[in-house]
Automatic annotation (TrEMBL):
<dbReference type="InterPro" id="IPR029052">
    <property type="entry name" value="Metallo-depent_PP-like"/>
</dbReference>
<dbReference type="InterPro" id="IPR038607">
    <property type="entry name" value="PhoD-like_sf"/>
</dbReference>
<protein>
    <recommendedName>
        <fullName>PhoD-like phosphatase metallophosphatase domain-containing protein</fullName>
    </recommendedName>
</protein>
């Protein structure tokens, strides 16, 4: 199998006045040098070389997978701001030499080119450190077998349309979680990922972690399509209901990232035969069936076969559509400074959802291993480029020692697992204008062990509590990170929270009041649905607002994803000490994972639309009473004098009159002096489409 030299990238990562980081993945070790040019957009041939120094760090993840983080610094003055900077990369080793042009990526006639318009090079620009004009893209939740078209493609179209206009061109792309779905791998891709993982990275002997994996049927089912559900649920102690092809090995996570970021490996996948029919995979015995093909199970086997076949055919159509436009996604990433944070599906569904989940998985050698591999791959493909200085030499040495061996019995293995489970600096602050702090709402959670009284009809039981998405120590670390990044009280602030602080209240309330209590009846709803809105833990919700109160930003913009809908909310929060917060909650989700489908999706949509009619053009008043409970105000419920805080909430409408969008979308946020415009970009029928929320005038 021919593995291309360039596997993914280039991706522009952290971009500062004195350093630019570029990420690439290759099939071999290379020395890499970068050439930078200042582009005069008024003269097509004006590419003025910028004197720079290039330092490249390389991590070998396996036999044929190398991750490079290229740090380019200017010699002399800082990089110019407010102007386009073009770049090329040169690759050298004993076997070959090539650059981006050699690969055809700079040829405007090549549909896989990573340049825009008449430019000769991929480009980006650095903010001018003012808060008057800026444009940011953001979104979350992207899987290859979703219904609908990939909205991330519309972000490429937007950048193409504005590529020489730096007042309109996006200066950054924020990816807010679920960049991959490790727990929900489409059937047509599963065998390819499992096999290529072994060839490119190497095989981990999972039987050393759990002896049951050496026995039938698990020794064979683990490498078959649809063969991992039982293993993941019962051995690793995960709770996902879609874990039939769950990623487990470091190489599997890595291959999924490569397939999500770049078109290069899809050509290999095509040669491998991922588009083969279900019948072909069946004849080659690549499929695992719960019911064996025996006379006593004939009806069950036949039903499973037909369900399996229908799912396979549907997913095959979806992944074919997904990969068609990946060259546009690569171009966007090659031209836009990109910052990424994880959510649950980057590792596994329900990751740290409850203290029981965390304890059960931590005590399972296989579960602990899979989470570590998910985090190791996240670091290599996402986290490293967000803030390279957050990962010291000791961290990288421990990572590389394990990557070199991939042996659960080696001395380096425990160091690898422990450092990833215990790491506490996944959060970071971007060098954008305004600055943005990315919250880690997964590994900094707080859990209250005290029971919560729950009543369903005449049944009264004690229930578990939802977690605080960030604990007290976590908030202290967030404040410290902002101070170190020279954010000042009174500045605008972007807060990147994977799940929104202000969601659609009806959805959250229905889940919290009517579905979540079903746990007392033994229904495992916490692992069937996401109960991770900030409001589900009142103490955590209060902590978020108190943190903002102490910061006193001029305006706070919270960007979120996760919930598979898009909305805009404006809230003003008043505290007894006369501090007032102006909060704008912008939510965009999913980029490619429409979940409001089928009967229940249709029903939820209709209920939400009806509820939206009531909320349009009105202000919702609520307060936190002295007992810490959230109270909605009305004719019979006024705000007492001893409130802890009080807030007024308005749901903003789009140009079509709706307050919610559930189809695939990506958010675009534009600042123009005192005006802020929130848009949604969508891609279908080979065109970009826009929806506008009400424009906001800042104080």
């Amino acid at each position: 199998m021919h593995i291309p030299a360039l596997l993914a990238g280039p991706i522009i990562r952290r971009t500062e006045h004195n350093r630019v980081c570029i990420w690439v993945a290759t099939n071999d070790d290379y020395d890499i040098n970068a050439d930078f040019y200042q582009i005069n957009t008024q003269r097509k041939t004006a590419y003025k070389p910028i004197k720079t120094d290039t330092q490249t760090e390389t991590m070998k993840l396996g036999k044929k997978l190398y991750i490079h983080l290229i740090s380019v610094t200017p010699l002399g003055r800082n990089f110019p701001s407010g102007t386009l900077i073009g770049y090329n990369l040169n690759f050298f080793n004993n076997a070959q030499t090539f650059d981006l042009g050699t690969l055809g990526l700079l040829d405007a006639q090549n549909p896989h080119s990573i340049v825009y318009g008449d430019l000769e090079l991929p480009s980006f620009f650095i903010d001018q450190d003012n808060e008057k004009r800026n444009t940011v893209l953001y979104g979350s939740c992207r899987k290859p077998h979703s219904e609908g078209d990939d909205a991330l493609v519309s972000a490429d179209v937007q950048t193409e349309e504005t590529h020489i206009n730096m007042e309109k061109r996006p200066s950054a792309l924020f990816l807010l979680g679920d960049q991959i779905y490790a727990d929900d791998i489409p059937d047509p891709l599963a065998s390819f990922i499992f096999d290529l993982s072994k060839e490119m990275v190497g095989e981990e002997e999972l039987g050393l972690l759990d002896n049951r994996l050496k026995l039938d049927p698990f020794v064979s089912s683990i490498d078959l399509i649809h063969g991992r559900q039982f293993i993941v649920n019962h051995f690793a102690k995960f709770t996902s209901n879609h874990a039939a092809n769950h990623l487990m090995q470091l190489g599997e996570y890595s291959i999924m990232y490569l397939l999500s970021f770049s078109p290069d490996l899809w050509e290999v996948a095509d040669d491998y035969g991922i588009y083969h029919s279900f019948e072909y995979k069946y004849e080659k015995e690549k499929l695992y069936f719960v019911y064996p093909d025996r006379d006593c199970y004939r009806e069950e086997y036949k039903k499973e076969y037909e369900q399996f076949r229908a799912r396979y055919i549907n997913q095959l159509k979806q992944i074919y559509r997904f990969q068609e436009n990946l060259y546009r996604v690569r171009r966007l990433l090659a031209n836009t400074p990109t910052y990424m944070i994880f959510d649950d599906h980057d590792i596994t569904d329900d990751w740290n959802l409850t203290i029981d989940w965390k304890n059960n998985v931590s005590e399972s050698p296989l579960g602990r291993h899979i989470v570590a591999n998910g985090l190791g791959a996240y670091w290599a493909f996402q986290g490293w480029g967000n803030d390279p200085d957050a990962f010291n030499k000791g961290f990288k040495i421990k990572m590389q020692k394990h990557f070199n061996q991939l042996d659960p019995q080696s001395p380096s293995y425990d160091d690898y697992v422990d450092i990833l489970w215990d790491f506490d600096r996944w959060h970071f602050v971007t060098p954008t204008s305004p600055k943005a702090i990315f919250l880690d709402t997964r590994t900094m959670r707080g859990y209250d062990p005290s029971p919560k009284p729950t009543k369903i009809g005449s049944l009264i039981e004690e229930n578990i509590r939802s977690p605080q998405l960030i604990n007290e120590t976590g908030w202290e670390k967030m404040t410290d990170a902002l101070q170190k990044a020279n954010w000042n009280r009174g500045d605008h602030l972007l807060v990147i929270s994977p799940t929104p602080l202000y969601g659609i209240g009806l959805i959250e309330s229905v889940l919290h009041n009517y579905v979540y209590p079903l746990r007392v009846l033994g229904v495992s709803v916490q692992s069937m649905l996401d109960f991770e809105a900030w409001k589900y833990n009142e103490q955590g919700y209060h902590a978020f607002l108190r943190w903002l109160e102490n910061l006193e930003p001029r305006n706070c913009f919270i960007l979120s994803g996760d919930v598979h809908y898009a909305s805009s909310v404006h809230a003003t929060v008043a505290f007894p000490n006369q501090t007032n917060l102006n909060i704008y909650q912008f939510t965009s989700s999913p980029m490619s994972n429409m979940s409001f489908t089928g009967f229940w999706g249709f029903l939820m949509q209709k209920v939400v639309w009806l509820n939206a009619l009531k909320r349009k053009k009105i202000t919702i008043h609520r307060h936190c009473n002295e007992d810490g409970h959230l109270v909605y105000e009305g004719k019979d419920q006024a705000c007492p004098s001893n409130f802890l805080w009080r807030e007024n909430i308005q749901y903003l409408s789009m140009d079509n009159g709706a307050i919610i969008e559930t189809d695939n979308n990506i958010g675009l946020l534009e600042w123009n002096h005192s005006i802020v415009q929130h848009k949604l970009l969508q891609y279908y029928e080979v065109y970009k489409h826009e929806k506008f929320f009400e424009a906001l005038e800042l104080d």
